[in-house]
Amino acid sequence: MCHPAKETLLWQTPKLRVIAVNDEPGVPAFCRVIWQEHIAEMTDLLPAERQELMEAVFKVEAGMRHILRPSKINLASLGNMVPHLHWHIIARFEDDAHFPAPIWAAPKHTHTHPLPDGWQQKLAAYLRGQMPNG
Protein backbone atom coordinates (compact mmCIF):
# COMPACT_ATOMS: atom_id res chain seq x y z
CA MET A 1 0.00 0.00 0.00
CA CYS A 2 2.98 2.27 0.42
CA HIS A 3 3.97 1.83 -3.22
CA PRO A 4 0.83 1.75 -5.38
CA ALA A 5 1.00 -0.42 -8.46
CA LYS A 6 -1.72 -1.57 -10.83
CA GLU A 7 -4.45 0.15 -8.82
CA THR A 8 -7.75 1.38 -10.16
CA LEU A 9 -7.46 4.90 -8.76
CA LEU A 10 -10.81 6.64 -8.30
CA TRP A 11 -9.78 9.78 -6.41
CA GLN A 12 -6.90 11.17 -4.43
CA THR A 13 -5.80 14.09 -2.34
CA PRO A 14 -2.29 14.84 -1.11
CA LYS A 15 -3.01 12.76 2.03
CA LEU A 16 -5.10 9.81 0.79
CA ARG A 17 -6.27 7.87 -2.21
CA VAL A 18 -9.39 5.86 -3.04
CA ILE A 19 -9.08 2.73 -5.14
CA ALA A 20 -11.48 0.14 -6.48
CA VAL A 21 -10.57 -3.38 -5.41
CA ASN A 22 -10.99 -5.75 -8.33
CA ASP A 23 -9.24 -8.85 -7.03
CA GLU A 24 -11.52 -10.02 -4.21
CA PRO A 25 -13.42 -13.07 -5.53
CA GLY A 26 -17.18 -12.92 -5.15
CA VAL A 27 -17.13 -9.27 -4.06
CA PRO A 28 -18.20 -7.10 -6.96
CA ALA A 29 -18.16 -3.62 -5.36
CA PHE A 30 -15.27 -2.96 -3.01
CA CYS A 31 -13.19 0.18 -2.45
CA ARG A 32 -10.33 1.14 -0.17
CA VAL A 33 -9.43 4.51 1.26
CA ILE A 34 -5.68 4.44 1.86
CA TRP A 35 -3.71 6.97 3.88
CA GLN A 36 -0.67 7.90 1.75
CA GLU A 37 1.86 8.13 4.59
CA HIS A 38 2.87 4.87 6.21
CA ILE A 39 0.92 4.98 9.46
CA ALA A 40 -0.47 1.93 11.23
CA GLU A 41 -3.23 3.26 13.50
CA MET A 42 -5.89 5.98 13.50
CA THR A 43 -4.50 7.44 16.71
CA ASP A 44 -1.16 8.03 14.96
CA LEU A 45 -2.92 10.75 12.96
CA LEU A 46 -3.55 14.29 14.11
CA PRO A 47 -7.22 15.01 14.87
CA ALA A 48 -7.65 17.00 11.62
CA GLU A 49 -6.12 14.13 9.64
CA ARG A 50 -8.49 11.64 11.28
CA GLN A 51 -11.37 13.89 10.27
CA GLU A 52 -10.10 14.09 6.69
CA LEU A 53 -9.75 10.32 6.48
CA MET A 54 -13.19 9.60 7.89
CA GLU A 55 -14.82 12.23 5.66
CA ALA A 56 -13.31 10.38 2.68
CA VAL A 57 -14.65 7.05 3.98
CA PHE A 58 -18.11 8.59 4.41
CA LYS A 59 -17.96 10.15 0.94
CA VAL A 60 -17.11 6.79 -0.65
CA GLU A 61 -19.91 5.12 1.30
CA ALA A 62 -22.40 7.77 0.21
CA GLY A 63 -21.31 7.48 -3.42
CA MET A 64 -21.55 3.70 -3.41
CA ARG A 65 -25.01 3.86 -1.84
CA HIS A 66 -26.14 6.43 -4.41
CA ILE A 67 -24.80 4.55 -7.44
CA LEU A 68 -25.18 0.90 -6.44
CA ARG A 69 -28.19 0.86 -4.10
CA PRO A 70 -26.78 -2.01 -1.99
CA SER A 71 -28.61 -3.81 0.81
CA LYS A 72 -25.84 -2.76 3.21
CA ILE A 73 -22.40 -1.14 3.27
CA ASN A 74 -19.64 -2.74 5.34
CA LEU A 75 -16.81 -0.60 6.71
CA ALA A 76 -13.67 -2.15 8.11
CA SER A 77 -10.23 -1.03 9.17
CA LEU A 78 -8.20 -4.14 9.79
CA GLY A 79 -4.60 -4.04 8.65
CA ASN A 80 -3.40 -7.16 10.42
CA MET A 81 -1.66 -8.43 7.29
CA VAL A 82 -0.69 -4.97 6.03
CA PRO A 83 -0.09 -2.50 8.90
CA HIS A 84 -0.73 0.53 6.71
CA LEU A 85 -3.78 2.60 7.62
CA HIS A 86 -6.65 1.94 5.23
CA TRP A 87 -10.42 1.46 5.29
CA HIS A 88 -12.47 -1.06 3.33
CA ILE A 89 -15.82 0.12 1.96
CA ILE A 90 -17.80 -2.85 0.67
CA ALA A 91 -21.23 -2.80 -0.96
CA ARG A 92 -23.22 -5.84 0.12
CA PHE A 93 -26.17 -7.34 -1.67
CA GLU A 94 -28.53 -10.04 -0.46
CA ASP A 95 -27.49 -12.18 -3.41
CA ASP A 96 -23.75 -11.65 -3.09
CA ALA A 97 -21.58 -14.75 -2.66
CA HIS A 98 -21.09 -14.33 1.09
CA PHE A 99 -24.23 -12.54 2.35
CA PRO A 100 -25.02 -12.23 5.21
CA ALA A 101 -21.59 -13.42 6.42
CA PRO A 102 -18.46 -11.25 6.13
CA ILE A 103 -16.86 -11.17 2.69
CA TRP A 104 -13.86 -13.06 4.02
CA ALA A 105 -16.04 -16.04 5.03
CA ALA A 106 -16.50 -19.03 2.76
CA PRO A 107 -18.84 -18.18 -0.14
CA LYS A 108 -22.34 -19.59 0.08
CA HIS A 109 -23.12 -19.37 -3.64
CA THR A 110 -22.11 -17.55 -6.84
CA HIS A 111 -22.65 -13.80 -6.91
CA THR A 112 -25.46 -12.88 -9.27
CA HIS A 113 -26.18 -9.21 -8.57
CA PRO A 114 -25.64 -7.09 -11.70
CA LEU A 115 -23.88 -3.80 -11.09
CA PRO A 116 -24.51 -0.64 -13.11
CA ASP A 117 -22.24 -0.31 -16.13
CA GLY A 118 -19.32 1.97 -15.41
CA TRP A 119 -20.01 2.13 -11.66
CA GLN A 120 -16.35 2.78 -10.88
CA GLN A 121 -16.21 5.73 -13.28
CA LYS A 122 -19.49 7.04 -11.83
CA LEU A 123 -18.08 6.75 -8.32
CA ALA A 124 -14.90 8.56 -9.38
CA ALA A 125 -17.05 11.40 -10.79
CA TYR A 126 -19.10 11.49 -7.58
CA LEU A 127 -15.95 11.73 -5.47
CA ARG A 128 -14.66 14.58 -7.63
CA GLY A 129 -17.97 16.39 -7.11
CA GLN A 130 -19.05 15.99 -10.73
CA MET A 131 -22.16 13.95 -9.96
CA PRO A 132 -25.17 14.96 -7.86
CA ASN A 133 -25.16 13.69 -4.26
CA GLY A 134 -28.92 13.01 -4.20
TrEMBL record:
Motif (Histidine triad motif): 84-88
One Gene Ontology MF term: catalytic activity
Pfam entry (one): HIT
Gene3D superfamilies: HIT-like (3.30.428.10)
Domain of life: Bacteria
HIT domain segment(s): 1-99
The protein's name in its UniProt record: Histidine triad family protein
